[in-house]
Amino acid sequence: MKKLLAEFFGTFWLVFGGCGSAIFAAGIPNVGIGFAGVALAFGLTVLTMAYAVGHISGGHFNPAVSFGLWAGGRFPAKDLVTYILAQTIGAIVAGSALYFIASGNSDFFIDNTQAGAFASNGYGAFSPNGYSLETAFATEFLLTLFFLLIILGATDKFANGKFAGVAIGLGLTLIHLISIPITNTSVNPARSTSQALIAMGEPLTQLWMFWTAPILGAIAAGFIYKTLLQKKETA
């Protein structure tokens, strides 16, 4: 139960901090944090929670990460469903908290006919810059693949584990700097689910892609690291 609570709170913080920065702080004229600020916010959420609760649950905070660690031989298949449920519930609760806070502003409304509604992800007309389904899929697949390579490498028993959280947090920051203009950056199905469920409309119908591409990319990374990169034990 402690592991599941750690995943719940870690994913809550990721969504609340990352998506919250996009909803509340990114677009304020003259003083808004912009894309770079949102990218840094997502990285900081993972970095801080990796050190806060990573020692309890492993610090996944993302269904794709759980799948990738399973494929890499670092996580048992029997725990996949419960971890993913804890992550997704944490994300949805965070999204609901963001909605409640945003509703305190009389000017607040969600226009789900526009890209990025309530920090949701999208492709085609719902991509921030109109990127197609194919290019959005490739982006989410590749960036999640490299995110998992960073995680698997930084947490390898032969690596300097003291700095794993820094590498992973900065890796997620870089991922957002690349892909916010393309898909509004997912690489995390739970994060995508929380915002799509609140935005509804087209963001919800496109949600399938933000489960499929990250999970496939993560699984590919797990097998690549385990078979091609992982240092073998010597006798």
TrEMBL record:
<keyword id="KW-0472">Membrane</keyword>
<feature type="transmembrane region" description="Helical">
    <location>
        <begin position="166"/>
        <end position="187"/>
    </location>
</feature>
<dbReference type="Pfam" id="PF00230">
    <property type="entry name" value="MIP"/>
</dbReference>
<keyword id="KW-1133">Transmembrane helix</keyword>
<feature type="transmembrane region" description="Helical">
    <location>
        <begin position="31"/>
        <end position="53"/>
    </location>
</feature>
<dbReference type="InterPro" id="IPR022357">
    <property type="entry name" value="MIP_CS"/>
</dbReference>
<feature type="transmembrane region" description="Helical">
    <location>
        <begin position="136"/>
        <end position="154"/>
    </location>
</feature>
<dbReference type="InterPro" id="IPR000425">
    <property type="entry name" value="MIP"/>
</dbReference>
<keyword id="KW-0812">Transmembrane</keyword>
<dbReference type="InterPro" id="IPR023271">
    <property type="entry name" value="Aquaporin-like"/>
</dbReference>
<feature type="transmembrane region" description="Helical">
    <location>
        <begin position="207"/>
        <end position="225"/>
    </location>
</feature>
<feature type="transmembrane region" description="Helical">
    <location>
        <begin position="80"/>
        <end position="102"/>
    </location>
</feature>
<protein>
    <submittedName>
        <fullName>Aquaporin Z</fullName>
    </submittedName>
</protein>
<dbReference type="InterPro" id="IPR034294">
    <property type="entry name" value="Aquaporin_transptr"/>
</dbReference>
<comment type="similarity">
    <text>Belongs to the MIP/aquaporin (TC 1.A.8) family.</text>
</comment>
<keyword id="KW-0813">Transport</keyword>
